[in-house]
């Protein structure tokens, strides 16, 4: 009897099937599954394409962010616009109101973040204008840059900030056209929704008009409304970081597939330390679901800090492994490092958290009948976690090669 090849209705379905194969097939010494091999080959190809000076690889969604090792993010903008506050709140867990006491940055601050991917954040003092100062080595600053984050204080007069940003964007378009420019219209807390949108519209028009006057259409400029006093800054950073992840579509397909099979409402893959989500499923993301999942991570971290080192007594372990379960404890829990489930009583939506590795956690909002299908849910989550682990096994060494 001969086996006919599987027929897929669409390329997306084929990709999902390959992903499932990727997450199911264990890698034996030197033997790779076809899906894993394909992912590996895609990487080899995109890493071998010749790179012209000043241009970035088109096939790489992160541009040339990985050429020199750790992807780099640059924070620029006027003085007191909030750059150091953003980096302290997102990456150093500083309480937002403590940023009131931050001193003005005098020199370029370089921070390295070790996480699911190692990246650097450079905080530029507001008074430095790189295009005013010929002594700056532009290639050292912008060559291989992941993203330029330009912070504009929405509570201040922003015309000068926009003028400086325009000069920078035009210069970058000429020399480094693929650098993502992320404009954070910042400090929008306390502004009415209408006013926020008015400001965003005004700034967008001013920048786009300037760009089209100089013949640049479709420049990679994105706008975000942010504040350190709510989740918007994490949401914006999530979007920035996602653009740096090679093959993000693969991660999104895995999560979309998981949501479909387990009937989850939403699934996020979080970087636990920063609470940035690095991928989510294809359903529309809303701030409320992100907030609740991100707060849940805080709860788990706090509980782990209190009870994390707790060891079970031999007696307790025997009781849990005996009747009626008759199985070793390790086989009963989905993950030896962390697993948890919380039910929100008002909306009857359980939230599930599953650690992927020491940096990443999968957090999903389930539906209220999910408890009836927990074994199936656990099995699917396990398969996706294996797939994610393999994904990062392949991509991480490529990202950090030159470190
Ligand atoms: N209301 C509000 N204030 C903010 C926000 N982010 C930062 N700030 C305040 O803005 C002030 C300046 O913040 P910094 O982070 O020092 O600004 P900076 O851009 O690093 O300034 P330089 O180092 O001089 O370039 C501080 O008092 C912060 O508390 C925000 O989202 N909302």
UniProtKB/TrEMBL annotation:
Annotated signal sequence range: none
GO cellular component: endomembrane system; fungal-type vacuole membrane; Gtr1-Gtr2 GTPase complex; nucleus
Main subcellular localisation: membrane
Subcellular location: Endomembrane system
Coiled-coil ranges from the UniProt annotation: none
Family: Belongs to the GTR/RAG GTP-binding protein family.
Short name of one Pfam family: Gtr1_RagA
Record bears the keyword Transcription: no
GO molecular function terms attached to this record: GTP binding; GTPase activity
Name this polypeptide is given: GTP-binding protein
Keywords: GTP-binding, Hydrolase, Membrane, Nucleotide-binding
Catalyses which reaction(s): GTP + H2O = GDP + phosphate + H(+)
The UniProt record lists the keyword Transcription: no
GO biological process: cellular response to starvation; negative regulation of autophagy; positive regulation of TORC1 signaling
SUPFAM superfamilies documented for this protein: P-loop containing nucleoside triphosphate hydrolases
Job description of the protein: GTPase involved in activation of the TORC1 signaling pathway, which promotes growth and represses autophagy in nutrient-rich conditions.
Self-association and partners: Component of the GSE complex.
């Amino acid at each position: 009897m001969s086996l006919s090849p599987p027929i897929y209705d669409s390329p997306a379905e084929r990709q999902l099937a390959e992903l499932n194969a990727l997450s199911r097939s264990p890698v034996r010494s030197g033997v790779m599954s076809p899906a894993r091999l394909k992912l590996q080959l895609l990487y080899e190809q995109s890493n071998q394409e010749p790179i012209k000076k000043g241009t970035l690889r088109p096939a790489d969604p992160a541009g040339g962010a990985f050429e020199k090792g750790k992807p780099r993010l640059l924070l620029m903008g006027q003085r007191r616009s909030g750059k150091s506050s953003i980096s302290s709140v997102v990456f150093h867990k500083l309480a937002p109101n403590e940023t009131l006491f931050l001193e003005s940055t005098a020199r370029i601050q370089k921070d390295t973040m070790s996480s699911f991917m190692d990246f650097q954040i450079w905080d530029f003092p507001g008074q430095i204008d790189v295009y005013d100062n010929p002594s700056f080595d532009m290639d050292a600053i912008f060559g291989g840059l992941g993203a330029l984050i330009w912070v504009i204080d929405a509570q201040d007069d922003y015309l000068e900030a926009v003028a400086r940003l325009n000069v920078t964007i035009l210069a970058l378009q000429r020399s480094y056209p693929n650098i993502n420019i992320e404009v954070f219209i910042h400090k929008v807390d306390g502004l009415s929704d209408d006013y926020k949108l008015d400001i965003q519209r005004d700034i967008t028009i001013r920048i786009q008009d300037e760009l089209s006057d100089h013949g640049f259409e479709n420049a990679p400029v994105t706008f975000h409304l942010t504040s350190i006093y709510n989740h918007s800054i994490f949401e914006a950073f999530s979007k920035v970081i996602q653009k740096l992840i090679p093959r993000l579509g693969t991660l999104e397909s895995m999560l979309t597939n998981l949501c479909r099979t387990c009937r989850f409402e939403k699934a996020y893959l979080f970087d636990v330390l920063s609470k940035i989500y690095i991928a989510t499923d294809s359903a529309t993301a809303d701030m409320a679901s992100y907030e609740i999942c991100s707060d849940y991570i805080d709860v788990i971290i706090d509980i782990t800090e209190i009870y994390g080192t707790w060891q079970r007594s031999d007696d307790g372990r025997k009781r849990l492994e005996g009747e009626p379960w008759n199985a070793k404890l390790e086989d009963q829990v989905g993950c030896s490092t962390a697993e948890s489930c919380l039910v929100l009583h008002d909306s009857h939506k359980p939230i599930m958290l599953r650690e992927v590795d020491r940096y990443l956690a999968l957090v999903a909002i389930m539906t209220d009948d999910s408890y009836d299908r927990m074994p199936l849910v656990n099995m699917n989550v396990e398969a996706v976690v294996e797939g994610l682990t393999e994904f990062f096994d392949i991509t991480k060494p490529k990202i950090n090669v030159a470190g």
